[in-house]
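# step 3/5: fold
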Amino acid sequence: MEKKTRHYYDFSLLIITIVLVSFGLVMIFSSSSYMAQTKFNDDLHFLSRQGRAVIVGVILMLIISKLDYKLLIAKFKFLPVRLCSLAYIGALALQILVLFIGQDYNGAKRWILIPVFGTFQPSELSKIAVIIFTAFLCYQAPRVLDRPAGFIRNCIYVGPIIVLIAKENLSSAIIVAAIFFVICFVTGRKHWYYYVIAVLAIAGLAAALYFGQGYRTERVDIWLNLETHPKGYQILQGLYAIASGGLFGTGLGNSMQKLGNIPESYNDMIFTIICEELGILGAIAVIALFLMLIWRILIISVNAPDLYGSLICVGVLVQIAVQVALNIAVVTNTIPSTGISLPFISYGGTSVVLLLCEIGLVLSVSGHINYEN
């Protein structure tokens, strides 16, 4: 009997993603309903906005998953550059634009106001742009990354957007830098100089935070003196929420800390509400879902039909893994506070739409994996 070659499509990844997004909607409603009712007289205000973004994101994810990801590096007669390069140039232009017309919110200029659609955060688009563009650079000339000169060449291309993001949001710049670094790392065969670069980068970042000036240094002071620092209130209340949840939690919707003690608890601090309402077991279940998601992306990356598809998956994996790790580390006061959302769960339309687009790209790669049965 002849074996038939079939295309693989990772439904496990799709299901895990839908579960995470659905759970995020539940937790956004739970953590935001009190503030939404108080501020907008509509307890569904934040849920409805996030719900619309999720619908758009899921539609885009399904469409992208059925397209050929190799279109990103294909040459089109009507375009002067490849789509991945065009996306990178566009993201770079938006990062420059936000410096001039960006909207200030809580002292940070990270958003561009788009009439009708609302605010848009260019750094979220920059993440996916850097993934597909860095993957292309490495795919085009993988062996040059065996030498430091090859890595420096890629840095010349991608470095400017990392610097621009750092001026607006250091935490997002760290994520983008990690995406770039790991994609280059897994492409090269000789890794000794990557370890040197990583150590120097971490030491430089630590020195800048500790000996520098401004709000970033203040966050280090808050981290070191949480209980006595006048601005350590939010993280301290988050720790109270985690502690009060115990093993099984207070029950979905029964958080007390979300009633004004944790400002905007539906954003970066949403993991503390998960811990309070669902307990340590609920938090472990959420972490387990993320680990399953990362595992499925890793499996697709290993079995991808070509290097470009594999490196796209690596970039998406790194972004999600680093964001989850940083978010949980911040809310548990393991590292100084920084504005990092919990992927798929925290409130934020731009973030969830683009994350779902990234999953669509990974699903597209999975759809080109062949197997015999």
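# step 4/5: annotate
Residues 5-372 form one domain.
# step 5/5: archive (pending)
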